[in-house]
User: Fold these one by one.
Assistant:
Number 1:
Amino acid sequence: MKLSAYYAPTLKEDPAEADVVSHKLLTRAGMIRKLTSGIYTFLPLGLRALNKAAKIVREEMDRAGALEILMPAVQPADLWRETGRWEVYGKELLRFKDRHDRDYCLGPTHEEVVTDLLRGEIKSYRQLPLNVYQIQTKFRDEIRPRFGLMRGREFVMKDGYSFDKDEDGANAAYQAMYAAYGRIFTRLGLEFRAVEADSGAIGGSFSHEFMVLAETGEDTIAACPKCSYGANLEKAQVMCALPMASGDAGKVEEVATPGVKTIAEVAAFLNVGPEEIFKTLLFIADGKRVAALVRGDRDINEVKLKNFLGASELALAAPEEVEAATGAPAGFAGPVGLGVDTIYADQELCAGLEWICGANKADTHLRRVNLKRDVGLTGFADLRSVAEGDRCPGCGEQLTLRRGIEVGHVFKLGTKYSESMKALFLDETGVERPMIMGCYGIGVSRIVAAAVEQNHDENGILWPPSIAPFEAVVVDLSGKDEAAKAKAAEIYEMLKTLDVETVLDDRDERPGSKFKDADLMGFPLQLVVGGKGLSRGVVEAKDRRTGVKSELPVEGFAAAFEAWRDTVRKGWE
Ligand code: ATP
Ligand code: MG
């Protein structure tokens, strides 16, 4: 491809409304253009990256035995009424009417359509299992479309659906998709973690999110630097090997702490560390009061607490409620003599013999509180969020907290849709049963953005070779030197014969702006052909990712190039 005849309009300035680096760089590098909020056009370079991501996804889905189909974007409301989602889906679902006044929506996902498709056709266990997928444009009227391709309103998704006759089959389908996703993100060359996600009513580990690690991610996850362990903060188990405190605690003592409320204030006032104090938090769980204790330097994780209690509703108690339960103003709550039947302490508190906590009395704290002796504790539990330095449940290494971008999601659906939509089949014994479903999504356009979020520098994109729109760029610096121009063209042609996807920057631009654009567009391999190098018989080669420059001889160029390319590719592994 010759840049002089291509459409890749680069920009010097970041678009004003862009708030993340992928949005800025993809726009500036002439790869995408915004049509309106959350809706983008892919220009030729951007589309090449998108298609490459889609190709890898497609190949791995096919390899795992899933069958590609293509379902419509427009979906009739009646299907959504059958599952009850027409009422509950909310404003993300873009609804409209046709000329006959019938209701439709633009598909944000395709459970209804795919279930409708197969319920008419699958009658017997002999026709199962079946796993179908599509790569198709979704529409979700997101409240806050932002971050460019990361959270668009219109975006490209791979969505797949499995149908099985029994639990074993459904679990095997889930495992096969989980494994395929691992291969996909590995082949894409992205650093990622599969994390256990909240699977709501289904329970068990039947929902995993695939997260690309990048500082700009919306989610925080605990990741092990040594093994493949990763978990959402809501899910990450805190490994606690602390022994139960033993020995005799001193007598409980009241201390006056006038106006001293926060942990930091108490610690400073009493001249102790925050880890010698515990916080007492009051929650309302399904209408009942529950107290949770956690070390002063930690926080209760409400999702963990809710799951632990098996509650369907959990909220922090309002200040009036706290005052009613403690008889003291907020800030002085403690578990000793508290009017609450259920009190759980975070497991870490087991190691402390004497604690400082609120006294349920204005301007007062207690010292030397012993949890066994002084508190009617219901029990200990893992209630806090995992923190930097906690041990990995997989291998014991210290965990680090990383930000992640959700690029994929695998989910065991069970019979939610097959029951409500009557997708039934006859099993081996002639009994009619609902099919057991799973659904598997990948944000294909989000992958393109996530790759840039993870791989860029101050000059532009660093495309992983797997999805780089082109692998190499030949920067023609010949100027008026016709012989050098011919050499640049010759090298470009040679690379094509070597099956290297190559761009020739033959534009009539100054060297500085050609270098800038090459860096901005981020092709992994840069080759600079100019009179100066040629006079010494060399072409300059730059690894875009590391910036390392080398010289390739014009004589025997092909072999030298291939060896160099292999080292650059290896660097990406
Ligand atoms: P999120 O929590 O980010 O909104 P989701 O849970 O709604 O995601 P799913 O319904 O599981 O996402 O969709 C499957 C995949 O589609 C996601 O893992 C994500 O990669 C992608 N995706 C979801 N919403 C968007 C969006 N607005 N723009 C781009 N990609 C998206
Ligand atoms: Mg969403």
Number 2:
Amino acid sequence: MRSQESELINIGELGDERGLLSVIESSKTIPFEINRVFYIYETKTSVRRGFHAHYKTRQALICVSGNCKVYLDNLIRKKDITLDSPTKILLLEPNDWHEMYDFSPDCVLLVLASHLYDSEDYIRDYKLFVEVYGS
Ligand code: TYD
């Protein structure tokens, strides 16, 4: 199976005396068409969530408020990324097993997804993840 790499990009900000503004354009700022948007908020600090990869869905994660950490495992590399700025975008490939944790109380984690919600597109079992994406 293919093994694409996650990527952290910085989209910068447009600012003037009124404040700041950041822009994400579908298939331009991020490399896929946005078909779904959801956001995770008021998460208890002790909570760890996610624990899955996908077959098809690509995602872009942005902490538009507060901060959180994301653990990634694509079977080649494991890493922990801190999302602490509304200009930082973490691009996840389908083969990125991801877990989000250490949510600040004010954290709003915005997720842009390439596909509509489909529970069949989730790989929630780590052993299956290794079977699907292992070499
Ligand atoms: P879940 O996938 O468990 O969140 P996480 O992976 O972060 O632990 O999602 C929680 C619930 O919300 C679950 O019942 C599925 C539902 N859900 C949707 O209906 N649509 C969506 O786009 C998402 C992300 C979740």
Number 3:
Amino acid sequence: MLKEKVEKALNEQVNKELFSAYIYQAMGAQAAHDGFDGIANWMDAQAQEEMFHARKIYDYINEQGGRVTLQTIEEPPSEFESPKAMFEKALEHEQFITESINDLVDLAKEENDHATEIFLQWYVTEQVEEEDNVGSILDKLELIGDKGRGMYMLDKELAERSFTSEEDEE
Ligand code: OFO
């Protein structure tokens, strides 16, 4: 049984995760248009991963006898100056999501909702990985610049990524 406050906050998190999918898909769309097929692939996989994050909370709300209420998804930005600007925005977004998860954990604690607190631990760990994944691509972009041969090689590397929910479960 979920308390109303917790149910509301979890529903808001579903919306934020869906917005995450939307923002990465918008980045993927621009990357595909600009000829960065590897970045487009990475963003597609990331968008799928975000849908999985949203779904996991959706299922949890249902399991706890709560009510999922879907809300309007904000329009994502659609113009990014460069691949580097794109990943900077991605890192900023992940930091925002980390804060949101931390606030949710605080709320679950305040409300003595142990089950939700435990459920959210997965997201706490996941956010460390999310920030690290984006941060390490950004480090490479700082190193090579986002043009020329280095960028070509990085784009090739990013073409290798695929998403499976099993991997994300680990
Ligand atoms: Fe759902 O972790 Fe990224 O946003």
